[in-house]
Structures are given as C-alpha cells and as structure tokens.
C-alpha cells in the first residue's frame, strides 16, 4: 500500500493529521504506542479542532522530537534537535504560506471543513516525507 492510500485508510478509521503522522512514524520504526497516538489527537484540526496552527506542523515537530528530544532525567536532547525542528518549521511555513496563505487550519481550509478531505491527505503525506528526509539526513532513521 502506498503512503497516500495508507493515509486515506487511517482517515476512514477516524484518525486525523497528528494521529496519522504518529501512526505512520511508528509503523516505519516497527513500534506501537497507543498513548502517543491518543496524545497526538490533541493536535488535530489545528490544536483541539480550534482551526489554529495546522496539526501537521505541530505533529511534524512532535515526530522529529520523538527521535531527537530529551525523554528522561539523565538524557540530553540530540545535538540535531533544534536544527531538525528549525528546518522543518521553516519548510512548513514556507510551503503552506505559499500554497494556502498561512499555517493555520483556517488559512488552509478557508474556513470550510469539507476542504480537509481534499487538502489534508496531501499535506500529511508531504509532512511525513519531509520529517523522514530530515531524520534520514541526520542519520537518525
């Protein structure tokens, strides 16, 4: 199954952007983490379905942090943490602003939730691919 088909399948199961990014990432590394998938649901629809900052931007940052962030008391964040996040957020801001006029769900959908079906799968796919590229370029995946 290709990436787009998997995104559409997960959408049909009732998952949204942040959760789909988590599931795709976990599948890529052969892990399951239902708590993470649940938590990422808070990013859906522009943070809690508020139509704010796109869940792909916040979700992508979380995906990168899953590999690069500090996770325990005796642990330090990866030296690649801030550069990975910076590269991703610069890319996302540039791409979404150029294409849709901003990075908030309301900018992307123009206030029409029905546009999510049309636009979000491609944004999720592009976000996932960019995150995997950033991690791969840094030898983290």
In short:
With 141 residues, the chain is an all-alpha fold.
Approximate helicity band? 55-70%
Q: Report the order of strands and helices.
A: HHHHHHH
Low-confidence stretches: none
End-to-end separation in angstroms reads 21 Å
Question: Which outline best applies?
Answer: globular
Report the major sheet.
none
Tell me what you see in this structure:
It is built from seven helices and no strands. The protein has helices at about 5-10, 15-30, 35-40, 55-70, 80-100, 105-110, 115-135. Helix 2 packs antiparallel against helix 3, helix 4 packs antiparallel against helix 5 and helix 5 (about 80-100) runs antiparallel to helix 7 (about 115-135). The longest helix is centred in the last third of the chain and has 23 residues, at about 115-135. The radius of gyration is 14 Å and the shape is globular. The mean pLDDT is about 95.
Please tag this protein with its features.
mainly alpha; globular; 141 residues; 0% strand
Topology diagram in text:
Blueprint: H1 3-12, H2 17-29, H3 34-40, H4 55-68, H5 81-100, H6 105-109, H7 115-137
């Amino acid at each position: 199954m290709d990436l787009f088909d998997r995104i559409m399948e997960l959408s049909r199961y009732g998952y949204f952007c942040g959760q789909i990014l988590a599931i795709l990432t976990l599948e890529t590394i052969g892990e399951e983490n239902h708590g993470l998938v649940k938590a990422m649901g808070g990013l859906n629809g522009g943070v809690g379905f508020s139509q704010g900052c796109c869940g792909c931007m916040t979700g992508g940052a979380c995906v990168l942090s899953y590999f690069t962030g500090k996770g325990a008391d005796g642990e330090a964040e990866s030296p690649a943490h801030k550069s990975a996040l910076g590269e991703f957020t610069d890319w996302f801001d540039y791409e979404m602003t150029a294409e849709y006029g901003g990075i908030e769900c309301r900018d992307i959908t123009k206030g029409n939730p029905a546009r999510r079906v049309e636009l979000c799968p491609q944004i999720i796919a592009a976000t996932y691919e960019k995150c995997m590229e950033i991690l791969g370029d840094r030898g983290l995946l």
